[in-house]
Design brief:
463 residues, OB fold (Dihydrolipoamide Acetyltransferase, E2P), 2 domains
């Protein structure tokens, strides 16, 4: 039996016998010839089947019809079809999975890739219900209800191939630069960040919490002498937000490095990773992304623009927008405004907003020696939306305890975390980045639901 060939590889083969398998996208059932567009995980190909002509007076195999003997009653059964393949094709519903053997032929007149397969054999693997529950104009919520069907679309398929390429490029950079990959636990005895965003669950005789980030364990790796680490894994936030960029479960891209001088070292690492990821995506998928999303992937130049937060807020105000917050943070519209300014001024899609106020940053962010009101931290803004937070961490135990107390935290409740710093730890820092946000903004999509395999939000736990 001829082994199955991915459709994307057919164009490299010579004319001849071939076997393909996938699902039916369309059927054109004409009087003399039938066409099927077959799609698999790699692309689509046209199948063609010329109908057999039914010879006058011919039996099932085209031989002369036998006349029943006078003593035999005539059969009331319908004669067997002379073209069972045609009958099968006529009955195919969209989405039916089939395997096909046939003759591959290169023909530049064929609009779909310049090739076609003339069917010699066809087997139905599983039949699909004829009427599908979603259509091209279905709402996003409806499409999410039937996500497995939605994901059959070429655009959706490309998103996850692109995601694979992006993640692989990051991992390749890390590995080539001697980073250690870690897998941190997602069940925790206490909060990793804010208690307000914790999911709790019964854990034998006690209560456990789903990790909001691998923050504590990334820093533990620095105390362990690992030097440079990374993780790509799930994170959970009990945040009842219904925005286009929030999820209750998401994939977090994290890295932490030792022996740094400031948050500038973390930003340099972040830049290098983004350049590696965007370069790989552009090289492998740039043409497809341009065709299906009408988006040109631009590899960002380095260094990325850097703007202290206070200056960014002044720039935004000069553009006519006052950030309506009681604290010192930026808001989403402010992020969009500063991104517009950076595009106009520097022609860049990225900007680091730096030096966030200590009042709005966690206790473990290091502060400037000359201005303790500011932290050595940043947010990375991409196409108008924050995708990451990074910082140099405070590694001096006495300063760390003082900053925790200033935030109203009881050092006794931070015992295991503070132990990391009581036995020696180098100066270090890192970042956490939301994978779905990067993909959403890279493709100019309107929601992270479009680029998340199975989205989880305040009102969605299925499929």
């Amino acid at each position: 039996m001829t082994s199955r060939v991915l459709i994307k590889n057919l164009s490299d083969l010579e004319d001849g016998p071939v076997s393909v398998g996938g699902w039916v996208e369309t059927v054109r059932d004409q009087k003399k010839v039938q066409f099927v567009v077959l799609r698999d995980e790699s692309g689509a190909v046209q199948l063609v089947h010329p109908r057999r002509a039914l010879e006058q007076g011919a039996g099932p195999l085209g031989s002369a019809a036998a006349t029943p003997a006078p003593s035999e009653p005539a059969s009331s059964e319908e004669p067997a079809s002379t073209d069972p393949i045609a009958d099968t094709i006529s009955s195919l519903a969209q989405g039916t999975f089939i395997t096909v053997t046939g003759e591959l032929k290169h023909d530049e007149r064929v609009k779909l890739g310049g090739i076609e397969v003339k069917v010699t054999g066809l087997d139905v693997v599983t039949e699909a219900i004829a009427e599908t529950p979603i259509a091209a104009d279905s709402s996003l919520d409806k499409r999410m209800d039937w996500r497995f069907l939605d994901l059959r679309q070429p655009k959706q398929n490309l998103i996850f191939r692109m995601q694979t390429t992006f993640e692989h490029a990051l991992r390749e950079y890390w590995v080539n630069n001697d980073f250690i990959e870690i897998h941190t636990p997602k069940l925790m005895a206490s909060a990793s960040e804010s208690r307000a965003e914790l999911f709790s669950l019964d854990y034998f005789e006690t209560t456990a919490y789903l990790a909001q980030s691998p923050q504590l364990f990334k820093q533990m790796a620095q105390a362990a002498g690992f030097g440079k680490v990374f993780e790509v894994g799930p994170a959970f936030r009990a945040d009842p937000s219904f925005t286009s960029r929030h999820a209750t479960e998401f994939t977090s891209v994290d890295s932490e490095i030792s022996w740094i001088d400031s948050h500038e070292d973390v930003m340099a690492l972040h830049e290098a990773l983004m350049v590696a990821g965007f370069t790989a995506v552009r090289e492998k998928h740039g043409d497809e992304i341009r065709e299906l999303f009408d988006v040109e992937i631009t590899v960002p130049s380095t260094p990325f623009p850097r703007i202290p937060l206070a200056e960014a807020k002044r720039i935004v105000a000069e553009r006519g927008y006052e950030v309506p917050r009681a604290d010192d943070d930026m808001d989403p519209e402010g992020e969009r405004q500063i991104s517009a300014y950076v595009r106009e001024t520097y022609g860049h899609e990225f900007v680091f907003l730096t030096d966030y106020a200590a009042s709005i940053r966690p206790y473990y962010h290091m502060r400037h020696d000359d201005d303790p009101a500011l932290t050595k931290s940043y947010d990375l803004i991409f196409n108008g939306t924050e995708i990451s937070t990074g910082a140099q961490r405070e590694h001096r135990i006495d300063v760390l305890i003082a900053q925790a107390k200033e935030k109203g935290l009881d050092p006794a409740e931070l015992g295991e975390y503070l132990d990391f710093f009581r036995y020696g730890v180098p100066a270090h820092g890192g970042f956490g980045m939301g994978l779905a946000r990067v993909l959403m903004l890279m493709l100019h999509e309107s929601s992270i639901r479009e680029v998340t395999y199975l989205f989880r939000g305040p009102t969605r736990l299925t499929p």
